[in-house]
Design a protein that fits this description.
Structural class: alpha+beta
Strand content: 25-35%
Low-confidence stretches: none
Mean pLDDT: 94
Shape: elongated
Strand order of the largest sheet: 1-2-3-4
Number of helices: 4
Order of helices and strands: EHHEEEEEEHH
Helix content: 40-55%
Radius of gyration: 19 Å
Number of strands: 7
Length: 135
Amino acid sequence: MQWRMKPVLPVSKLMGAVAVVVLAVAFAGNDPVRWALAAVVGVALILWGLRDLLRPVRLAADAEGVTVATGFLGRRRLTWGQIERVRVDRRSHRGLRSEMLELDAGDAIYLFSANDLGALPEDVAAALADLRVSA
């Protein structure tokens, strides 16, 4: 089983980079600070979008364990024995509610949002629980 990022997110990030360039052309004029700021933000958005296009799978699971995305393009394989807990972390703050899938591997905690997974964290947690039981 694999859970991947929604395709609209990397496209939105790349469109944001284009928007930054357009705004810089329209409003930066001869101001080097605005051009530098636009360049930094544009490059960051491009890199962030490319990462999501190159490695859209954030979480993969099978009978032996899970593979999680780490860092910019890294992966880490965890066996079911290394995973201490799988739960959905729900928080409310100022009227906003968020849900994150939390994988506790002892030395590291991996958090995934619904946008990262392309599915609700509660559904992914249930699927992982089924896989873990069958293993």
